[in-house]
Amino acid sequence: xxxxxxxxxxxxxxxxxxxxxxxxxxxxxxxxxxxxxxxxxxxxxxxxxxxxxxxxxxxxxxxxxxxxxxxxxxxxxxxxxxxxxxxxxxxxxxxxxxxxxxxxxxxxxxxxxxxxxxxxxxxxxxxxxxxxxxxxxxxxxxxxxxxxxxxxxxxxxxxxxxxxxxxxxxxxxxxxxxxxxxxxxxxxxxxxxxxxxxxxxxxxxxxxxxxxxxxxxxxx
Length: 220
Hints:
This protein is mainly α and about 220 residues long. A hairpin with a 4-residue loop joins strand 1 and strand 2. Helix 1 runs antiparallel to helix 3 and helix 5 packs antiparallel against helix 7.
């Protein structure tokens, strides 16, 4: 159903979701590249533990189950009936695998956007880093219900663009550079229903170095 051929997704997943899932593989929960409390005070340990161990694990389990059912489906009709489960759980696995690497402790790489290709591109396409963050937060906060806010690279025009996707839909129209989870499970324990506070805080732990690496891979 999905293809992770885009180079930006390669580091995020140990396996790819094949374009055809006739032969199912077993997907596993990736380890976090930091401790559960490493993003405090901006994202608390309780959120990170539940988000990773419970929510992401649920998408992995759902994806494995859907691929197993798809491989055993006796008819095209039953294969079609499984598309929603494959999209939702596969997207959840892709998105979260990217998300964990999007983040880093603030006493490390988190929140630090140094001079380089990514900063230059952001300033070119949004005017300034602050204007970029302001526009990103506004568009992401405006998502109705659950979804994701993305900074993506548009390979057709060479520009960085802000895109949103609903639910767990992965970003397929652009190369994902930064993705922010706006599902309530990503912030509610700490920020309640105040999405702007969460969005303002998360920039302190965004791993711009990882985003710049994805941009470099996308523009080779």
